[in-house]
Amino acid sequence: MALVSEVGNVPIPIECFCSVDAFLNPLLTDKKPMKIDDFRLKLGKKEFVPVVVGGMGVNISTSELALEAARLGGIGHISDAEVPVVADHQFHTHFVANKLKRHRSNIGSKDKSGVHFDLEELAKAQRLYVSKTMEAKQGEGAVFVNCMEKLLMNDPMGTLRARLTGAMDGGIDGITLSAGLNLRSLELMQDHPRFRDVKIGIIVSSVRALKIFLRRAARVRRLPDYIIVEGPLAGGHLGFDVKDWHLYDLKEIVAEVLLFLEAEGLTIPVIPAGGVFTGSDGVEFIQNGASAVQVATRFTVTRESGLPRHVKQKYLEAKEEDVVVNAVSPTGYPMRMLKQTPALGKTTKPNCESLGYILDGNGKCAYHESYYRAREKDPGGKVIVRGKVCLCTQMQTYRCWTCGHNVYRLKDTTNRLPDGSYQLLTTEHVFRDYQFSEDHQIKLPPEPGFLKPKLSD
Ligand SMILES: Cc1cc2nc3c(=O)[nH]c(=O)nc-3n(C[C@H](O)[C@H](O)[C@H](O)COP(=O)(O)O)c2cc1C
User: Fold this and answer.
1) CA–CA separation, 132 vs 172, rounded Å?
2) Residues paired with residue 28 on neighbouring β-strands, in sequence order
3) 210 lines ligand 1 (CB under 6 A)
4) How far is the CA of 341 from the centre of ligand 1 (A)?
5) In sequence order, which residues have a C-beta less than 8 Å from that of residue 159 and are 6 or more positions away?
6) DSSP codes joined into one string, 142-197
7) List of domains in the chain
8) Which residues, in sequence order, are CB contacts of 87 under 8 Å at separation 6+?
9) pLDDT digit string (tens) for 51-102?
10) Mutation test of ligand 1: which of 297, 341, 396 has the most ligand atoms closer than 8 Å to its C-beta?
């Protein structure tokens, strides 16, 4: 045994120093810093690199981005938000035009209660988008779809069923039920032949929400396969109140969820999300009982991300004081975004006859109501809507710049180019940085001269 020191004449073996190090720094085990790659996420019989790229609608987490995560052995999400729009862009279908054709005569009317999606067409769009993605899948990872249940689409149950069954028909590996969890989702899926084979996960922001969902899941004897616990620093919509989101802490919520599951004797993998910026942040969660981490913001500035190039630069330029949480989303959930978001303060005519994703089961949406109220107040005058934005239109045109709290740190993950812009990253680079980074280090990409050019650049 190698003796390296003596304390009070007592020889101390080198192994003791290793464990003291490890005790002082939980990221060190036997002197070696831990990395995410030292762990695996087990879902059923499959094992994954425990990095999940979260869904980012509308088409920010593109098929290409999700497929890269899967190729590298992790899990990537596509998002089915506004899937007919996404399908039309990619496959030159006419789902949006067909809907508009059916409801054109309603344009200008405040009453949107009759503006429905054709459920067959909706399922077809979903099937097409998912099956084309799955056909391109390579590697040992998985592609899941993020299904935002707060998109009620003027028929919450019918449209949700069409989206869920369309995704399963299309061969998706897993479905993550998010924002506005519908307690009946599992019932809506239960007659599908893939109900017990497709992976099903939920996103919750509290033990309370989890308990409610699990009670309902018990009815169909189908527990979720994984639980994503999303904290207050995440991007997109938040499961907290706009006034007090900052009082919550992801680590605490995850600890509560783990305690609850243990007390119930349930072994469901828990996946924290929101603010996990380095691989070492992920390791800390995993060492404290999580099974993987879900991340998103760092992938917004990859070449595969669907954001337009100039918007990626806005994300890279962002400062901490640019990041706001506000109540402009007509869904009723707070949303985090850059304060430079072009959609803020913009009044657009509601486009529900083509879009209409946020209309509730009675054909109402907080934006379209504000719009028609403003119009009635001043007939013939300029309509100005304050406090809400037309999210359907603004998200599909990338004018709502939602992001995680850490967006202002993106500039530290890449190189500044001679023209002052920032170098875009590849999904592979960011994924591998999460997988292999140690001690909170972030690896910069190779200088642009060393990269193979890509058409999208
Ligand atoms: C640009 C962007 C769009 C997002 N869109 C969605 C979405 O459509 N549905 C959803 O459930 N979560 C959405 N999220 C949340 C992410 O899936 C993820 O859980 C979270 O942002 C992870 O935290 P991080 O961004 O700090 O890594 C979005 C996040 C970002 C950054």
Assistant:
1) 10
2) 33
3) no
4) 16
5) 117, 119, 122, 151, 152, 153
6) EEEEEEETT--TT-HHHHHHHHHHHHHHTT-SEEEEESS--TTHHHHHTTSTTTTT
7) 2-306+415-450 (3.20.20.70)
8) 93, 95, 125, 128, 129
9) 999 999 999 999 999 999 999 999 999 999 999 999 999 999 999 999 999 9
10) 297
Centroid of ligand 1 to alpha carbon of 66 (angstroms): 13
**One-letter identity of residue 97:** A
pLDDT in tens, 101-147: 999 999 999 999 999 999 999 999 999 999 999 999 999 999 999 99
From the CB of 56, is ligand 1 less than 6 Å away? yes
Give the pLDDT confidence score for residue 20 in this predicted structure: 44
Atom of ligand 1 nearest to the CA of 228: 19
pLDDT class of 32 with cuts at 50, 70, 90: confident
Which is the closest atom of ligand 1 to the Cα of 55? 17
- Output the CA 412–ligand 1 centroid distance in Å: 20
Q: What are phi and psi of 25, to 5 degrees?
A: -125, 105
CB 431 within 8 A of CB 366: no
C-alpha 237 to ligand 1 mean position (Å) = 8
How much is the pTM? 0.92
218 membership: H or E segment, kind and range: helix 207-219
Structure confidence by residue, pLDDT tens digits, 279-325: 999 999 999 999 999 999 999 999 999 999 999 999 999 999 999 99
